[in-house]
Amino acid sequence: MNILQRRDKKDLLFDIFNYSLMVFIIFIVIYPIWYVIIYSLNDGVDAMQGGIYWWPRVFTLENYKAVFTNTGIINAFYITILKTIIGTIVHVLFTGMVAYAFSRSELIGRKFYMIMGTITLFFGGGLIPYFLLIRNLGLFDNFLVYIIPAMFNFFEAIIFISFFRSIPNALEEAAKIDGASYFTIFFRIILPVSLPVVATIALFHGVYQWNDYFTGVIFINNPNLQPIQTYLYRIIAQSSANQMLNLMPGSIATRTVTSQSLKMATMVVTTLPIVFVYPFLQKYFVKGVMIGSIKG
Amino acid sequence: MDFKGEVLEYTNYSNRRMGNIKRFLRKLYLQRDLQIMALAGAIWMFIFNYIPMYGLVIAFKDFNIVKPISDAPWVGLKHFIEFVNDDNFLNVLTNTLGISLLKLLIGFPLPIIFALLLNELTSLKFKKAVQTISYLPHFLSWVILGGIIINWLSDIGLINDILIKMKILKEPISFLGDPQYFWWIAVISDVWKELGWSAIIYLAAIAGIDPEMYEAAIIDGASRLQKIWYITLPAIKPTITILFILAVSGIFNSNFDQILVLRNSLNASASDVIDIYVYRMGIQNANYSYATAAGLLKSIVSMILLLIANEISKRLNETSLF
Q1: Residues B49, B88: one domain?
Q2: Are residues B310 and B222 in the same domain?
Q3: Which of chain B's ends, N or C, has fewer CB atoms near its CB within 10 Å?
Q4: Mind listing the pLDDT tens digit for each residue in A200-259?
Q5: Which residues in chain B touch residue A249, judged by CB atoms under 8 angstroms apart?
Q6: How many structural domains comprise chain B?
Q7: pLDDT tens for residues B72-90?
Q8: Considering only CA atoms, which of B231, B241, B230 is closest in space to residue B206?
Q9: From the CA of A169, how many Å to the nearest CA of chain B?
Q10: Spans in chain B with pLDDT lower than 70
């Protein structure tokens, strides 16, 4: 044991370097997020003078009041929450159910289904044919565009399949003797014992739904149907170039700058749910990426 | 009378066949629920994966949105030739490759180094904390990060503020308004977002190394660097190889979500990558056939690259993706 724990001066030096580097990395990761928080808690007009680094200078909750009284933002949050909850439930149940069928060796045509799925991992139509399809399906400006095209994913089905195949058969046989249908077996027996993989897929999909802005950008024109990420994207993308032009020295417009602090407060509210659930969910994410990397 | 036997035989045969079909139908009937589930998946894939694949034919046609695809006249490679000869082609290609190569050069090795350094931390609690914090940015959307980056890099943003206070700059620079900075902004922000997340796979590979190897090396008097060089790196080489093949084949894919947020009319000459070009031409300008051709050309080249990278790696390292 003594030999194993031996450290010399060089080791110590390396440790000091390594630990400092890691502290630096933590700082680099956290600081931008912290900055948005303090900016959002600072008076908007005051913030534009710069010089806010560690703590709000003129503390105010006005920005948050503005966020929570803006009907456009509130509605966008509502859409985001709705699409995240419905989208995740539908995705997990549907992908899980199809994967369950694909995982049964008695399934007639199993090979065909698996080949059909595997091809989708390598080939796709790309943006334009997909866009035209969604348009033809009438999903334009339709809430279902968040749900139906995201219902299934063969890659995640593979993760489910490999898990389902590891479940001992005895569990199902007993149910089958009792005359249970496959649907009953899936919902009553398989899903409950697959909680770890269900949680992993649900979390991945939940984060996708929460963060996705592009679906809203191309398929939604109705402002009442856009999620918060699309809302933010539209503010950011539309104003960034203009802002840079307008904010050349001497032409600083107060309105733009307060919109900056409002944007920051909205960003904080948008991000907080993820930051809060993150530590609890972290182990699932890691598990998911492991399974994914083995399969991929 | 003679053929009675034949008839009998035939009936027997047909009975057997009927029996097979019956048995098959019975099996199918018994698993009807299972078939419904599987078919639901197959129908979904048919609609959302296979119809768009068929939709690729518009790259070879003059597609008009008011008519169905089958009515559009064939034009062969017209759109491909047009794309390759377009004034934007070279610029789009340069931007795509420039950003991707920089990402490969910087964003590929850094997670490996990060994983190796994390693995050298003696305090497990600290290691876990660093890891947990380092993946956090992966779960934030590009809209949020884009919002932060645009704020920081604006004339009155944090970066200019600090650079001016440190007397490095006299006048603020509009970083996102100047094409010369765009590639670096894209690369650095991408590394910031994905460093921790990309390291997970390497950490898992490192965790799978037999600890006895290290113990033996220590007894032999190996230094830390030697342990990393002679044990850890060779052990994770297959993982590195596979991720490298994937990274090389993805060189024509840009991070669309990222660039769409960070681009603007002022930096367009540096931020127009193939994916953005397809989006601009196809969705914004409704030039469907042309944009599809550009996208398809990209996918084909990517596929070829994947096969080449895979083949080279198979010969050199005996590790390959397939």
Answers
A1: no
A2: yes
A3: N
A4: 899 889 999 999 999 999 999 999 999 999 999 988 876 654 544 444 343 344 443 467
A5: 155
A6: 2
A7: 899 999 999 999 999 999 9
A8: B231
A9: 16
A10: 1-15
In a domain, B270, yes or no: yes
Please give, rounded to a whole number of angstroms, the shortest distance from the CA of A225 to a CA of chain B.
18
Is A275's Cβ below 8 Å from some Cβ in B? Answer: yes
Residue B285 has φ and ψ, to the nearest 5°, of -100, 0
What gap in Å lies between CA B121 and CA B100, rounded to an integer? Answer: 31
Amino acid identity of residue B130, one-letter, is V
pLDDT over 70 (residue A155): yes
Q: Which domains does chain A have, with CATH numbers?
A: 64-295 (1.10.3720.10)
Length of chain A equals: 296
Nearest C-alpha neighbor of A102 from the set A152, A66, A54 = A152
Report pLDDT for B45.
Answer: 97
Name B91's bridge partners: none
User: Which of A30, A127, A290 is the closest to B295 by Cβ?
Assistant: A127
Residues B129, B226 within the same domain = yes
CA distance A14 to chain B (A): 9
Contact across the interface for B197 and A289, Cβ inside 8 Å: yes
Query: Does residue B156 share a domain with residue B16?
Result: no
- Helical residues (DSSP H) of B208-267, grouped into ranges: 211-219, 224-227, 233-249, 256-262
> Are B235 and B94 contained in the same domain?
yes
Q: Are residues B11 and B140 in the same domain?
A: no
Contacts made by residues A135-144, CB under 8 angstroms, sequence distance 24+: A137/B47, A139/A219, A140/A219, A140/A220, A140/A221, A141/A219, A141/A220, A141/A221, A141/A222, A141/A225, A142/A219, A142/A225, A143/A79, A143/A82, A143/A83, A143/A225
ipTM reported for the complex, 2 dp: 0.87
Please check whether residue B69 lies inside any domain of the structure.
Answer: no
For B117, nearest residue in chain A (alpha carbons): A18
Residue B68 within a domain:
no
Q: Which residues 6+ apart lie within 8 Å of A116 measured at CB?
A: B42, B45
Q: Say yes or no: B128 and B10 in one domain.
A: no
User: Is residue B49 domain-shared with residue B141, that is, in the same domain?
Assistant: no
Which residue in B20, B89, B86, B40 sits closest to B274, CA to CA?
Answer: B89
Write the residue in B121, B126, B174 that is nearest to A244 by C-beta: B174
Domain membership flag for residue B25 = yes
Q: Domain with B242 in it: what CATH number? A: 1.10.3720.10
Structural domain for B52, as ranges: 4-59
